[in-house]
Design goal:
This protein has 571 residues and is an alpha/beta fold. The chain contains 19 helices and 15 strands. Among the domains are: 240 residues, Rossmann fold, CATH 3.40.50; 153 residues, no CATH class.
Length: 571
């Protein structure tokens, strides 16, 4: 549920802060007061596109922040947890738009990309604009509405999964068939390359060992000379060496240690040093004796390394990558040599997956046909209440077994209607007038939204073009919807506003060469004044105010009775 919104320097709103509650909230105000500013600002904080033209004149940035309470909304909570953005059942969203053109988004004070705001926003708020009924004419939208009403998420997921499996195999088969044209030439080249690498007989560790062996043989004389010099310094038979110096020093200190026992530690260390020096000398002597100077072996190593580098240059890789290349070429050769078997397997798999897809699409279609009958009856019933007595609404499903596969199944779905008794239903786009289409759209939205789980619904002047008793029915439907969800309705109709649980007034204030928007909640007396303005225009008479009072009292009573009897649940 949306708990509050804070707007700073957005359009003509310099500072707007509003708290919200559950149920249905009506947003009213004079034409041009900026009733849709709240909706537009909310859309931006939920990830809509924006540029710096939305920033209030004279300001450097616009900032919108909103809060949501999520204790009973698993979808949004799970999304936040998956993205490590959860904050104990609450959610704070913020959007900053700078004059320089930069835009930043935040979820629970963590910076996020706009895509994250959009993904979370789709789980929190559903906004229905005043021109939304126009999209109802599109076949894709009609299919989506029917599937939403029927709760086809699982069937659609299954159909889409079968489609993806089939499409993946189809692409693999097409690629295999296409590659067959050059297969023979490729096989010949691969056989030559594999045989060449087979003859090389290169092991993975050989490249590194070749380098070490070459370096040792190429520098054997230098290594021997260094070992001999080291032996002489450590323990030469003649001259001065480290062993002789340490031995002489040890002998002198051992005599002195008899006079002062504190020298015993030093003499002990010198004894250890003599042992270590001797071990180092023995090690060098053994290493030098093991060194070999073998020009023949050195030439062999240089020839082998030359072959490796030549092949590596030929294949545009490093010498140590040749073993992996060898395996790759051998695998490709094996795949191409067995292409005939693979083609038969792909064709068999494709046929089986096509059958699986057709079965899933048929199951989806059967469920759509069943839901379409129920859906048509519910919309038809609501049409009677919305000023179209005798109106009929039908959903026609055409299942085409020869239709191209798609993730959404093999059905063509079309909404048909007749707003006048005795007239056969025709396509919605050709039969319904603008006003009729708007009312049918409202009926469909209310019916479909009952099956969804988005906690906050916003209707932006969708009641345009209706009035009188029909407007009251619209208000009752929105009020009933508000019993399960939070509903906002931007409206110019007093019949709708009177049925809201609470009412916000949007007004435009001018002065000192500035214009700003104000949004404030209305108490009962203020609601009566606002309804009277909506009823009577500029001059508000006592009779108009009494009419408004009666409308508010009657509207709240009717709303309670309607909701209590659940009269709008046509299921």
């Amino acid at each position: 549920m949306l708990t509050h919104i804070n707007i700073r320097n957005f359009a003509i709103a310099d500072a707007v802060e509003v708290e919200f509650g559950p149920g249905m909230t009506g947003l009213t105000g004079e034409t041009g007061a900026g009733k849709s500013i709240l909706i537009d600002a909310l859309g931006l904080v939920l990830g809509d596109r924006a540029d710096n033209s939305v920033i209030r004149h004279g300001s450097e940035r616009a900032e919108i922040s909103v809060g949501f309470e999520l204790r009973h909304h698993a979808a949004a909570t799970d999304w936040l947890q998956d993205h490590e953005l959860d904050a104990d059942g609450e959610c704070q969203l913020r959007r900053i738009i700078n004059r320089a053109g930069r835009s930043r988004g935040f979820i629970n004070n963590q910076p996020v990309p706009m895509q994250s705001l959009r993904e979370l926003g789709e789980r929190l708020v559903d906004i229905h604009g005043q021109h939304e009924h126009q999209s109802l004419l599109h076949a894709a939208v009609q299919r989506q509405l029917l599937d939403a009403y029927a709760g086809h998420a699982a069937l659609l997921t299954g159909s889409a999964a079968r489609y993806r499996e089939w499409a993946t195999t189809r692409d693999a088969l097409e690629q295999a068939l296409h590659s067959g044209e050059d297969r023979d030439a490729r096989i010949d080249l691969l056989r030559y390359q594999v045989q060449e690498l087979d003859a090389l007989g290169l092991e993975r560790a050989e490249v590194e060992s070749l380098g070490h062996d070459h370096d040792r043989l190429a520098n054997a004389e230098q290594l021997q000379a260094a070992c001999q010099q080291g032996l002489e310094r450590l323990n030469a038979e003649t001259g001065t060496s480290a062993f002789q110096l340490v031995s002489h020093t040890l002998g002198e200190l051992e005599e002195l240690a008899r006079l002062d026992q504190r020298l015993e530690t030093t003499t002990g260390l010198l004894n250890e040093i003599m042992v270590l020096v001797q071990e180092c000398a023995d090690g060098l002597r053994g290493y030098a004796e093991g060194l070999e100077i073998d020009p023949g072996r050195l030439r062999q190593l240089e020839e082998r390394m030359g072959v490796l580098h030549d092949l590596a240059r030929k294949h545009h890789c490093k010498p140590d990558e040749l073993p992996d290349l060898h395996e790759q070429l051998r695998s490709e050769l094996d795949s191409l040599e067995h292409a005939g078997r693979d083609l038969a397997e792909l064709q068999s798999r494709l046929e089986a997956q096509a059958n699986d897809y057709r079965a899933a699409a048929q199951q989806l279609s059967a469920s759509r046909v069943k839901a379409a009958r129920k859906f048509g009856k519910q919309v038809s019933a609501d049409m009677q209440q919305l000023g179209m007595p005798g109106g009929v609404f039908e959903v026609v499903i055409h299942h085409d077994a020869d239709r191209s596969f798609s993730p959404q199944g093999m059905d063509h779905i079309e909404f048909m209607t007749s707003a006048n008794p005795g007239q056969p239903p025709g396509p919605l786009a050709k039969v319904a007038s603008g006003g009729e289409l708007s009312r049918i759209s409202l009926a469909i939205q209310v019916i479909c939204l009952k099956g969804e789980h988005i906690p906050t619904l916003i209707f932006d002047e969708i009641d345009t073009g209706i009035g009188g008793g029909v407007a009251e029915i619209v208000g009752q439907k929105l009020r009933a919807l508000g019993e399960d969800r939070q509903v906002f309705c931007v409206t110019h109709l007093p019949q709708v506003a009177a049925l809201a649980n609470r009412q916000l007034q949007v007004s435009k204030l001018t002065g000192d060469d500035t214009t700003r928007t104000r949004v404030r909640p209305l108490d009962e007396a203020e609601r009566i004044d606002e309804l009277a303005r909506m009823l009577g225009g500029v001059r508000i008479t006592r009779q108009t105010r009494e009419h408004a009072r009666e409308m508010l009292v009657q509207g709240q009573r009717v709303a309670r009775v309607a909701v209590g009897s659940n009269s709008f649940d046509q299921s």
